[in-house]
Amino acid sequence: MICAAGCCSSASGASCGSRSDAASQPYLRVENARLLKRNLADNGLSAEVVEAAAGPVDGTGKLARSRSGEPHAYRMSEDEGVPVRVAGVAGILDRLEGERVNVLKVVIEGTEVEVFTGDTGWLGRVDAVVIELRPWLRDPGPVPAAARDAGFEVVPGGRPELCAFVRG
């Protein structure tokens, strides 16, 4: 298992089934990783923790509060915010050394469109995706469209922001 301990609101905790108040503060990203590692150990799970925000490609970016006014909403920005390391999803999955991904949970707080409309070759290694979209922050339409193009069926969740992509 690989978990990306990102800098976004719930990306580090919720991605592996846990939450903490510190997970909602992007500036405490080192604390996010520490809490994720502790939660994994407490639950007897083994995982490589990637201490980075997940994005379309490896590099750096700036994480800023969203302009939506939501207290736990963040966005990647080119001109403002806190500098963060960004790990491309393809590179994160490459750490699995060719293994298939049964279920990929995606909570990346605003870079979904970039991740799913860039190079999506990595989707060929994934059987199912559970994703949280933020339709009140930006139009998520390109994301389900890209999933369909990659051979997934889009299954709505119980809330507007939740859905799953599953192979037929």
Architecture overview:
- This protein is of the alpha/beta class and 168 residues long.
- Helices cover 23% and strands 27% of the residues.
- It contains 5 helices and 10 strands.
- The strands form 3 sheets. It has a 4-stranded mixed sheet with strand order 3-6-4-5.
- The longest helix is centred in the N-terminal third of the chain and has 14 residues.
- The two termini are 24 Å apart.
- About 14% of the residues have low confidence.
Short description:
By secondary structure, this protein is α/β, with parallel strands linked by helices. It has helices at 11-14, 29-42, 89-94, 112-117, 142-149, and strands at residues 2-4, 48-50, 53-55, 59-65, 74-77, 82-88, 104-106, 128-132, 152-156, 162-167.
- Lateral arrangement of strands in the main beta sheet: 3-6-4-5
Structural class: alpha/beta
Instruction: State Rg.
Output: 15 Å
Tally of contiguous helical segments: 5
Main sheet overview: 4 strands, mixed
Oligomer state equals: single chain
Q: Report helical residue fraction.
A: 10-25%
| Unreliably modeled segments | 6-28
**Beta-strand segment tally:** 10
Tertiary shape: globular
Q: What average pLDDT do the residues reach?
A: 78
Note the beta-strand portion: 25-35%
Question: What is the straight-line distance between the termini?
Answer: 24 Å
Order of helices and strands: EHHEEEEEHEHEHEE
Secondary structure topology:
Layout: E1 2-4, H1 11-14, H2 29-42, E2 48-50, E3 53-55, E4 59-65, E5 74-77, E6 82-88, H3 89-94, E7 104-106, H4 112-117, E8 128-132, H5 142-149, E9 152-156, E10 162-167
Parallel strand pairs: 1-2, 3-6, 7-8
Antiparallel strand pairs: 4-5, 4-6, 8-10, 9-10
